[in-house]
Amino acid sequence: MTAPSEADPGASEDPKLRTIAEAFHGPGAIRQIRALGNGNVNDTYLVQTSTDSFVLQRLNTSVFANPEQVMGNLQVLGEHVQPKLEQSSEVADFSRWELPRVIPPQSGAVLWHCCPEGGFWRCTSFVANACSIDRIEHAQQALQVGAGLGRFHRLIHDIPCEELHDTLEGFHVTPRYLDLYHQALVRSSAKPCQQTEACIAFIREREAFCGVLEQARQRGELSIRPIHGDPKCNNVMLDESSGEAIALIDLDTVKPGLIHYDIGDGLRSCCNRAGEECDDLDQVVFSIDLARAMLEGYLREAGSVLSQWDLHYIPAAARLISFELGLRFFTDHLNGNVYFKASHPSHNLQRALVQFRLTESIEHQFDALQALVQELSGATAARPC
Fold first, then answer.
1. Which of residues 128, 148, 168 is at a domain's end?
2. Per-residue pLDDT averaged across 162-186, rounded?
């Protein structure tokens, strides 16, 4: 993801946006602003000054009801990780790792800026000479995505959870999403069709599985710890020259949770070569080969902080998070596309169908995925649930 040139046709000349950017960098400092990325929640821009590039974001306060807590978590994260990055013993096994830094407004009073229209804005450093990938093309990319997530987990695993706000209470708690789906199904005005009926039937057959991770937590088999919350493959930045993972971005969802939410999301996004926006469901397949690469990278970096139970529930996490995202997409379709950005009325329905097809592919290969985790971890199988 490189900074654009001055002639970039995507540059924005919105004077209000320029005024917001100047709140962080001062009057006259802004050379160019353009839209950045394809996120489904926040509005994101790349800001170029005469000396550097930065990421400017408007947080979606309909999603993040307490954006000040999001910023507090970023501050805790930076204060914990940055000293580690300055210790050679912590970074000896990788050549480059960056944590996006919060850039405070010129006023210096707080870490964010609120514009007169009510928008909540923040600015962070830009990870230069790096790119992100929406769809994994080969095993080396999957290995680096896994290594990046594992490195992040290793760097943050000892942050006391009481120091982090739960900025999205219930996020990734699948039984909660199932309840929200049932509510949406009752009140939805969406026109029934063959695809919606197929989604309803698919969900009905898997309702009993929704509590697998939360029930393991309640039994004490899994524990709450710091997580990224949204580590899909395009949130892992790869060095443009070496291809190595060098950063995780989109840190709004950092919070206490189960690391299986992260591992499952990594596998879900890494191992479907067709990507989330696929129109041909026959192309949606969970690749065991990519899973091998992704888990090899992840366990190499984070294996030392995992328990036997953590390893045991990795395959269930891959299946559950794929199903959960499909459930969330379908619920948003029923609600009229109010959460995820959609380019057409059936966009979230199609996204749901992709995730459900991926879930089904994982189910067909579940035993192979279990064997793969055991092989790569060198662990004996944990006791069955």
1. 128
2. 95
